[in-house]
Each structure stands twice: as C-alpha cells, then as structure tokens.
C-alpha cells in the first residue's frame, strides 16, 4: 500500500467524522432526484475528503455520492470511492448507526477499504499486509457459524417487501450498508445481504470482506467486482457476504420476490 500513506487516510476519516458529528441529530435533509436524502453534512464531508485526497494522491480519480466521478487517468487507474454519510436517514433521526466509508478501486479490484462509525468511535480498515484492523488492532476472521436460532443475518430495511427469507436465526437491519458490511467481522454473523446498492456503498466493504476471506457474490453465486457497477447507478443484483463454508447455505434461504 505504498501508493498512499495509511496514517493520512485514517486521520482524514477521523476529520470527516468530526465534521459530520457537528450536524448529527440537527441536520435538515432534502431529497435528491433519486429520492434518497442528503444533508449539508454529506456535502461538507465530501468536499473535505476530495480536497485532502487530491493532496495525498494527485491524479487519482474520486467517485463520491454527492459530486459523482472526477479526475482519474483512464480505465484501471486508481479511484477513491467515498460515501460521506452512509445511513443518512439514521443520521437525521439521531440514531448512531451511520458511517463514513472510503474505498480504493484499482483494475477492477477493491484494494483498500475503511469504514468509520464516528458516534461510537469504531474503525475498520484493511492494512498493507492484506489483513483487517479494528481500531488499530488486528482483526481475526470469524469462524463459520452453525446457522441456528442465535445467528444473525443482516438485511436491507426493505427486505420484507423484496425477499422471502427462511433463515432460522435473527434478521437485523441497522440502516447503513457499510455498517452492515463490516458485521462479518463480528461473532454470530451468518451473512450480510446487501440489496441493489451503489458502488460508494460497497467499495470499502468489498475490500474488507475480501481481506477477511469472505465469499462475495450474488444470490446465484456469481462473483462481484467493481466493474459490475455503472457510475451513479445501482448494481443489477443483490449481494451476499458470507463465510466460504456457509455462503451457498445462506443464499439458498433467500429468495428475491419478482415484481
């Protein structure tokens, strides 16, 4: 990871969190053309991050939820992918389950990921040795769970309208795709079902889950890579993160409702 300095990126994430916290629970929100909410916190954080990344890594592209794609030097060139406040509805409601997400995509691979939860001061990121760190300490991959009533499957908030799920354990929705994506590092997680999300929701957790050894695929088992997204558009299929040994079992318990 010699193309950028990890300590600079970690400090940037903390600065982004501090900016967002100024607005937390007090931010007004308005709807964008895609009907998603946006706040001034989203915009201020993204402006900060874009400015700093331009200093740290000149010539890299940046894809952000609020300002789209800028910079870059052609196909395969490094591109930062930032979601300034992932879980805006939770953020506006004063709930702590929102996050700052930053990934790096190179040659159709998510090569770096960082997810920071400012309210509870928790940060996951991939290190230069290919491992995952939690608040600066190595994060060991979790063993596969047994898929019983105590295990957890994290699901989108609209799962009841979009999926039939026969999973025997608990279903939980925390309101942030990036937050969900790091829950594979926690005990009792059987899997994380992501809906048709944007690349800025996914880039960081693609890198983190790959480093944890998780299988990342569609419900039919097809591998997921960044090139399956069109800029500013959602991926065509839902995504599942799960342990290699449990992926097919969990995927078989989830059926997408055809409308």
Largest sheet: 8 strands, mixed
Mean pLDDT: 92
Largest beta sheet: strand ordering: 4-3-5-6-7-8-9-10
CATH fold naming of the largest domain: Fructose-1,6-Bisphosphatase, Chain A, domain 1
Under CATH, the homologous superfamily of the largest domain reads Fructose-1,6-Bisphosphatase, subunit A, domain 1
H/E series, N to C?
HEEHEEEHEEEEEEHEEHEHEEHE
Percent in strands: 25-35%
- Please give the domain count: 2
Low-confidence region ranges: none
Query: Structural class, please?
Result: alpha+beta
- Radius of gyration over all CA atoms, rounded: 17 Å
Helical stretch tally: 7
CATH architecture of the largest domain: 2-Layer Sandwich
State the shape: globular
Number of strands: 17
Q: Ends: how far apart?
A: 44 Å
Please describe the structure with a list of short key phrases separated by commas or semicolons.
259 residues, alpha+beta, Fructose-1,6-Bisphosphatase, Chain A, domain 1, D-Maltodextrin-Binding Protein, domain 2, 8-stranded mixed beta sheet, 5-stranded mixed beta sheet, 17 strands, 29% strand
